[in-house]
Write a structure and sequence with these properties.
about 525 residues; alpha+beta; Neuraminidase; 4-stranded antiparallel beta sheet; 13 helices; about 30% helix; about 20% strand
């Protein structure tokens, strides 16, 4: 099951992923039905999020459209064999967009075949006598194939039949110029080759023309320590050089930053199984509408206690792995204490809004609009949420230390509010958004806005109101699926994309030490803070 992206992307160094996955292909037990898979290995996702799966034990390639409940056989599926219309243990598949065809590692037949992507009934052998396991293609159309028999990766330019060794090729072993049962391969825009070196439990990088590789993940023997890997398989690398690898033996996905000597677990790591934190299982509570008299902590505590009591009666486990909400400080504080193990996300625009309302409340609106010194420090308070969690308090202390005595006197009430509200009442983990897309509405915010608008429409009787709630329940389930898949309620506008790009560029300059923390702070404050009137 390799990880793959047809083009390397720029992922924020501290990006986080939902820990509960959803099934997008198969999931109906092992079998040969059109809605089943049997030992799926290679995986390719097209631009329209159509998934192509190398269904190894069924000797076929299956296409799954986004949201489909069953697949369609697009290659093989005619029994195990060596005929042009058959496959034998396919382990990987990619799309050649220029020729609109599938390229398949037909492993037990010792060949690589090209199969028409649409309405194909047979394939064409393009490479023979190869122990193929994984393959990929660069932007020039050159094909890269791992040959586990020869412990090497070969590049085949269009029209070539022999290819060129670009990694390994010096026999099996653990030297830097060797590989041992290489599995999957990724090629970046510089044509550096990344290989999951399975028996050596490492990921190797071979720069174009290099005689030996560099260990970029693992290489410290087999194990489950953060410095180790166990039988790595799929590998993908982003534009910052961060390596993402399927650590198969440990049932987890790991991230290794460029130059790092240890990685971090971003998905899984809870053993092999079917629990929700093992990428399977329940991920949401049933649809509930709560009409609350206020937004006080005690009210939220009461609501959650009632939900937990109902869960016990329904024999359900009310310990969610993740909670998404609007940006209500009291709600966030209660969620922190009532669901201590849950990952929590909220809508960060409201943080800026909350700061600005506090500015108005303490009588600083005129100064914010007319006094550059006041405006500068207020903007920085609004931008503080974009800093890494570990340095937020130190950055805040440095901000205070740089204030003049006069400015500190002017902002005293605002600073007291900020410390009380955002350091004492609500933990930093609830409001920092470093590494997230700060301009994307979350699903909970969008659902609440829609529901709030519709519930205020006049309903002629109780039955129509019940029907309305039933319809909203269906919308909720749809939203839950979006939430689990990490999808937002609507595409981001061009302006939002431009803002996010500026934030990401500032972050890259900060991590590259091109600017210091306060210069990073200044840049962020101009981008995200509320403008003067």
């Amino acid at each position: 099951y390799p990880l793959r992206s047809p083009f390397s992307t720029n992922i924020h160094p501290n990006a986080r992923w939902q820990q509960n996955g959803i099934t997008v292909a198969g999931g109906n037990r092992q079998g040969n039905g059109i809605n089943q898979l049997s030992n799926p290995w290679g995986l390719y996702v097209d631009d329209d999020q159509t998934i192509y799966v190398a269904d190894q034990s069924n000797h076929r390639i299956v296409e799954w459209k986004r949201g489909a409940t069953s697949g369609q056989v697009v290659a093989g599926g005619n029994g195990q064999g060596s005929g042009d219309h058959q496959l034998d243990d396919p382990y990987d598949v990619i799309i050649d967009k220029e020729r609109d065809s599938l390229i398949i590692c037909d492993t037990s037949n010792g060949r690589v075949v090209r199969w028409p992507r649409r309405n194909g009934t047979s394939g064409e052998t393009i490479i023979s006598n190869i122990s193929c396991w994984g393959l990929t293609m660069d932007e020039n159309g050159s094909l890269y194939i791992t040959d586990y028999g020869e412990a090497e990766v070969r590049r085949y330019r269009r029209g070539e039949s022999q290819g060129t060794v670009v990694a390994g090729g010096n026999g099996r072993g653990n030297r830097l110029d060797q590989l041992s049962f290489p599995r999957y391969v990724f090629v970046d825009r510089d044509h550096s080759v990344y290989v999951s070196d399975r028996i050596n439990h490492r990921v190797m990088k071979w720069m174009e023309g290099a005689k030996q590789g560099i260990v970029v993940a693992g290489g410290q023997g087999e194990g489950n320590d953060l410095t180790q890997l166990s039988s790595p398989l799929g590998v993908v690398v982003d534009q910052l050089g961060t390596v993402y690898v399927a650590d198969a033996g440990n049932n987890q996905i790991m991230r290794w930053h460029k130059g790092a000597t240890q990685g971090s677990v971003i998905v899984g790591g809870n053993g092999k199984g079917e629990q929700s934190n093992q990428l399977n299982g329940p991920i949401a509570f049933p649809f509930v509408v709560g009409l609350l008299p206020n937004r006080l902590k005690g009210t939220y505590h009461f609501m959650f206690n009632e939900l937990k009591s109902i869960a016990v009666q329904m024999q359900m486990n009310c310990t969610p792995k993740s909670i998404m909400s609007g940006f209500e400080p009291c709600l966030l504080a209660v969620v922190t204490t009532d669901f201590v193990t849950a990952t929590r996300t909220s809508y960060c625009f409201h943080f800026t809004q909350a700061i600005y309302r506090a500015i108005q409340r303490v009588g600083l609106s005129t100064s914010y609009n007319n006094n550059d010194g006041v405006n500068q420090y207020c903007r920085k308070l609004m931008a503080l949420r974009l800093f890494p969690e570990a340095i937020i308090e130190n950055t805040y202390d440095e901000l205070i230390a740089t204030m003049s005595i006069n400015l500190r006197n002017v902002l005293n009430d605002l600073m007291e509010y900020f410390q009380e509200e955002w350091f004492l009442k609500v933990s930093i983990s609830q409001w920092y958004v470093h590494g997230m897309n700060m301009r994307t509405n979350n699903n909970a915010e969008a659902f609440h806005s829609r529901f709030n608008h519709r519930v205020q429409v006049n309903h002629p009787n109780i039955w129509s109101f019940i029907q309305f709630l039933q319809g909203e329940e269906n919308s909720f389930h749809h939203m839950r699926i979006q939430f689990s898949a990490g999808l937002g309620p609507r595409p981001k506008q061009a302006k939002a994309i431009a803002i996010q790009r500026r934030i990401d560029n500032l972050g890259k300059r900060y991590y590259d030490c091109a600017i210091n923390a306060m210069e990073y702070f200044d840049g962020l404050s101009f981008i995200v803070a509320k403008r003067k009137k």
